[in-house]
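U., I forgot to send this yesterday:
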Amino acid sequence: MSVPFIVTPRLVRGLDYYTRTVFEAQTGKLGAQNAVGGGGRYDNLVKSLGGPDIAGIGFAMGLERLIMLLSEDQDLESEGPDLFMASLDETAQELAFRLANDIRGRGFWVEMEYTPASLKSRMKRAGKLGAEWVLILGPEEMSRGEGILRNMSTGTQEEVSLSEAVTEIIKRLEGDKV
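Result:
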């Protein structure tokens, strides 16, 4: 997903049960206390506690530090997500995940589910969340190289080319913000 990172072989999270990989998310906006969250792999933890030999991963975040990072001008009273990704099968989910991350990176609130489900259940979920728009991605749409973009307020929908989906969706989302 092109998330920038730095490999630091000497990173210490302070817990003995981590194995191999540990991680920490930092910011330059909090001064010396710049870690927002972190965690790592627990390959031996469950077994050492008497459970099965199963690997795991865990993390923690500092709520106070997250709150300090919120800017004052951020709209915390939003009704619901700008966009809901209604992916109907695994292939569509992979594309939806990439599109969602791209659109989120441009400052929009995008929600999606991570397991395949029916269109009816996806639309019900989008409505419950109060999504403004829904991008429908199913096998038929994917075979045509298109998605269906539905405006939840008006009920209108249109086909958008998947190669131009991010640009077209952002045009609609920015139109709603004006």
